[in-house]
């Protein structure tokens, strides 16, 4: 009851009773048909509110990020999820396949890209190659919610283009005045009237990390903001691990408690119950073997020990019982819930295959791959594609690649593909048999199967032909290449009668 109801109840309890009865009836009507909307006893303390995403996120964003970073430093369960994402989203990296329509030009672009992705060419700090930058991007997105990359047009590499990684903390939340009139600044990002980012205000930290200089404005074309947007009204990042943080913390606290319990359980002890106190009138302990009572100070249990106690003394064993078996079951439950919250299987993070067979492991891997595929899609579309397009433009401007009609239609030369490294097989024989059946039935092409194995299908055919030719030259018959005939070219007859 609110204060008004209490005042009415003081003067007229009947009126107050009727007001409360009608209020409960109205709440029931509002939630009629949905148990989740019921305001009864079981849901009485469940009172969320509908607010814009940024209004909800801005007050919790920094706290969640700080707690996620603490988990990164101190939680093995937390890091098992991060490792699973790094292994499966990025792995050993991606291979570029340019698709300009000119094979010679494609080869030239791919060779230049391979050189540019080295740390001294792609990273303004010269500390990370492109694959390591990708792994860091996936990791920071899971922990911090996102990461920013600034396009730096500078000298020092094979191209005047490098990347500078920035943490989301460097967004200048204190800036209120927009760079362009009519825009607005929220959380360090400047938006136009359509809520489209047009610029970013970046804090300028000193090298020691303490002092601050005046924030600098960068146009949106120079910044890549890699994060997941889940609601139309969401403006900035929130840690991907937010739904799982409390569960991981519960698991960590539980593990600490169980570890302490097991340490106590490992403390085997022996207590001596005396029939009479040691010593005589002088209070000194007897230390001889002439029938006097003796002390057990300094004595310990040793293997094969044979000894005897003083007359009347008794020994009582202290052996605490362990409860690790029950703890294992509960800990598995917690970890399964954490993994489910991140769209992964328990086996993918715990690396525990004791309860799986080939079919269940294959199904779990398929479902996990669908989760990773979403992250790979966003990584490619939101970051890698834009980096490649800027790389190609910089290569043309720098004269490293010559394309006469590039500026007439740049998009004509932007087509490309990313080929990821192949995944290891659970059962190579079954996987190879499935690929053979799919190829023979036309369900998959050789090009698709090669892509799944992380290979370029043309290069693979060239390799097969080279191996077959070399084997024939040496007089060796090998398996794995069928219907490949390497024969000397003979002049074609002029007519069928020749």
Give a written overview of the molecule.
This is Phage portal protein, lambda family. InterPro entries: Phage_lambda_portal (IPR006429). One of its GO terms (molecular function) is structural molecule activity. One of its GO terms (biological process) is virion assembly. The chain is an alpha+beta fold and 498 residues long. Among the domains are: 41 residues, no CATH class; 187 residues, no CATH class. Helices cover 44% and strands 12% of the residues. The chain is built from 14 helices and eleven strands. The strands form four sheets. It has a four-stranded antiparallel β-sheet, with no helix packed on it. β6 and β7 form a beta hairpin. It is extended and about 105 Å long. About 3% of the residues have low confidence.
List descriptors.
4-stranded antiparallel sheet; 3-stranded antiparallel sheet; 11 strands; 44% helix; Phage portal protein, lambda family
Helices and strands in order, then pairings?
Elements: H1 3-11, H2 13-30, H3 53-74, H4 76-90, E1 94-98, H5 103-116, H6 119-122, H7 130-144, E2 146-152, E3 162-166, E4 184-186, E5 189-191, E6 197-205, E7 212-219, E8 223-227, H8 245-265, E9 269-273, E10 314-318, H9 324-341, H10 346-350, H11 358-398, E11 416-420, H12 428-441, H13 446-452, H14 457-473
Antiparallel strand pairs: 1-11, 2-3, 2-8, 4-5, 5-6, 6-7, 9-10
């Amino acid at each position: 009851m609110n204060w008004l109801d209490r005042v009415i109840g003081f003067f007229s309890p009947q009126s107050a009773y009727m007001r409360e009865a009608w209020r409960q009836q109205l709440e029931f009507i509002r939630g009629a048909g949905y148990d989740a909307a019921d305001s009864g006893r079981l849901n009485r303390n469940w009172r969320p509110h509908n607010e814009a995403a940024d209004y909800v996120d801005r007050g919790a964003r920094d706290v969640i990020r700080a707690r996620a970073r603490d988990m990164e430093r101190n939680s093995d369960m937390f890091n098992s999820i991060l490792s699973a994402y790094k292994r499966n989203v990025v792995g050993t990296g991606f291979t570029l396949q340019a698709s300009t329509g000119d094979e010679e030009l494609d080869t030239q672009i791919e060779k230049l890209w391979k050189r540019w992705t080295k740390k001294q060419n792609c990273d303004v700090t010269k500390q990370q190659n492109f694959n390591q930058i990708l792994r860091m991007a996936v990791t920071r997105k899971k922990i911090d919610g996102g990461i920013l990359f600034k396009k730096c047009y500078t000298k020092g590499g094979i191209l005047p283009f490098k990347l500078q990684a920035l943490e989301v903390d460097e967004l200048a939340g204190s800036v209120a005045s927009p760079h362009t009139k009519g825009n607005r600044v929220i959380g360090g990002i400047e938006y136009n009237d359509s809520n489209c980012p047009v610029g970013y205000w970046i804090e300028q930290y000193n090298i020691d990390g303490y002092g601050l200089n005046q924030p600098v404005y960068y146009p949106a074309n120079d910044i890549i903001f890699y994060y997941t947007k889940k609601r139309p009204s969401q403006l900035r990042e929130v840690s991907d691990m937010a739904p799982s943080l409390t569960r991981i913390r519960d698991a960590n606290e539980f593990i600490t408690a169980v570890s302490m319990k097991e340490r106590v359980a490992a403390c085997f002890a022996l207590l001596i119950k005396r029939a009479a106190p040691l010593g005589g009138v002088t209070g000194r302990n007897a230390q001889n073997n002439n029938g006097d009572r003796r002390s057990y100070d300094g004595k310990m249990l040793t293997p094969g020990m044979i000894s005897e106690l003083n007359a009347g003394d008794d020994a009582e064993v202290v052996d605490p019982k362990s409860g690790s078996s029950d703890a294992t079951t509960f800990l598995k439950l917690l970890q399964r819930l954490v993994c489910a919250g991140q769209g992964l299987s328990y086996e993918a993070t715990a690396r525990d295959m004791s309860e799986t067979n080939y079919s269940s492991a294959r199904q779990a891997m398929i479902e996990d791959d669908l989760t990773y595929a979403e992250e790979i899609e966003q990584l490619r579309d939101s970051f890698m594609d834009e980096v490649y397009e800027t790389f190609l433009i910089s290569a043309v401007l720098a004269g490293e690649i010559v394309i006469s009609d590039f500026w007439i239609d740049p998009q004509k030369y932007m087509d490309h593909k990313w080929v990821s490294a192949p995944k290891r097989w659970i059962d190579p024989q079954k996987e190879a048999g499935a690929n053979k059946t799919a190829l023979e039935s036309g369900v998959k092409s050789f090009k698709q199967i090669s892509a799944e194995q992380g290979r370029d299908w043309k290069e693979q055919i060239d390799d097969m032909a080279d191996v077959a030719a070399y084997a024939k030259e040496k007089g060796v018959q090998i398996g794995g290449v069928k219907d490949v005939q390497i024969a000397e070219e003979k002049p074609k007859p002029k007519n069928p009668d020749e």
